[in-house]
Specification:
mainly alpha; globular; single chain; 147 residues
Length: 147
């Protein structure tokens, strides 16, 4: 039951703050308006902070799926931003500043989270351990009624 409650809390945070943040970021790129877009990225940071608080309250960390989803979404968003910057002749300085500033803030928040949660040495050790471990060892066996 506690796992379900944690999942609902995390999904509620991301559904509310993530959707409004996404709308503000898209509006900031469309208009272009630096303040609106940065407010959207700020909502992403608030949602991430709320996720960390929920994890602390339930005594858990980020699951493998949560980490993978966050990494994939971030990388795809950065690649789309870079491709649009290269392909669009009238991309503009405001949109460039919005993308660089927003993605840099999200990356800085990740580094800050890792440094405060695991320490600098612990963070580097986690990354080094993940890099050295074969992919087969990172997969957890399925448990439960599903085949």
């Amino acid at each position: 039951m506690a796992t379900t409650e944690r999942t609902l809390a995390v999904m509620t945070i991301w559904a509310w703050l993530g959707s409004f943040g996404f709308a503000l970021v898209l509006t900031g790129f469309r208009v272009p308006d630096l303040a609106l877009g940065l407010c959207g990225f700020a909502l992403f940071l608030v949602a991430g902070s709320g996720h960390v608080i929920v994890n602390r309250l339930w005594g858990t960390g980020f699951g493998h799926g949560e980490v993978a989803l966050g990494f994939v979404v971030y990388v795809v968003a950065v690649l789309v931003f870079l491709a649009t910057w290269i392909a669009a002749p009238d991309f503009g300085v405001v949109r460039i500043a919005l993308g660089l500033g927003g993605f840099a803030a999200l990356f800085a928040a990740l580094v800050l989270y890792l440094a405060t949660s695991f320490g600098v040495r612990g963070s580097i050790a986690l990354i080094d351990e993940a890099r050295r471990r074969p992919l087969a060892e990172t997969r957890r066996p399925r448990t439960g009624a599903r085949p």
